[in-house]
């Protein structure tokens, strides 16, 4: 892959002529317009392209080859931050959002009560599991389609967009009204599912796998984007290490590294990362300080009796305090 950086004074006609010439040589051309420069991302076999010939054009500032295997997700391909719009709620660039809700939807009363609380305390997107991937087949597996309907009712009453996890591409018809589709850690490399999601225009939150590298995460994002869906949000949710005191190890270095490598928004899930409620607040604050575009926090109105992951869930009152501290950290890092 190559990128051609065009000068600010390049005309629309010049850009169109160069684009058509490149397409005539079998390349796909992605145009990214920034405040000062226009960048042409050239995808395909660029080995036969004479870079000196292109650089010699008056309209071209420079030509660079990109060695990383991920293309569409690459910041070199798209220098400015992508901003994902979810029903008017924006994630990425200067926009920060708090996503909150229970690990799993348990009843209409439960999800609606939590939705109203987290909305009042500063969350802008409601999370909740309808399909639950569990290590044990005997654990609660979620309410499935009924759970999605309960979340949609909570959305109608609060106005909050919803996010829930998909397990199988065959379930896509049930996700038609879901605002953000979550791909969980266990499905990060379910490439057939990623291909199906790539044919949608709906935002996808892609969680890093339990033992996957950042490059592997970005390559999974590439699968979605290669299908035409550019609305991808990356999520760091902790990786498996030799440490046993926490559920996983939150890799906060992933936040600035992903922001350096990619233009996609990056959010952090401190709940799954630590597995311990008292660690969620400090890890969420640290994620914000590291530059995350959002945090996803599990909140339950009765954690002791939760059907799933009660140990890592905050009460609404605890979430309120955490949200207040997050806002203060945001004021510092954006000053």
Structure commentary:
- With 335 residues, the protein is of the alpha/beta class.
- Helices cover 33% and strands 19% of the residues.
- The protein has 10 helices and 14 strands.
- The chain has helices spanning 12-23, 51-55, 108-120, 145-158, 191-198, 214-226, 254-261, 270-274, 277-290, 316-333; strands at 2-6, 28-33, 38-43, 60-65, 84-86, 89-91, 97-101, 125-127, 162-166, 180-183, 204-207, 232-236, 266-268, 294-298.
- The strands form 3 sheets. Strands 7-8-9-10-11-12-13-14 form an 8-stranded parallel beta barrel, surrounded by 5 helices.
- Helix 4 links the parallel strand 8 (125-127) and strand 9.
- Helix 3 (108-120) packs parallel to helix 4 (145-158), helix 5 crosses helix 6 and helix 9 runs parallel beside helix 10 (316-333).
- The radius of gyration is 21 Å and the shape is elongated.
Report the β-strand fraction as a percent range.
15-25%
DSSP strand count: 14
**Whole-Å distance between the termini?**
37 Å
Apparent shape:
elongated
Counting DSSP H or I runs of 4 or more residues, the number of helices is 10
Class from secondary-structure proportions: alpha/beta
Strand and helix order: EHEEHEEEEHEHEEHEHEHEHHEH
Low-pLDDT segments: none
Cα Rg: 21 Å
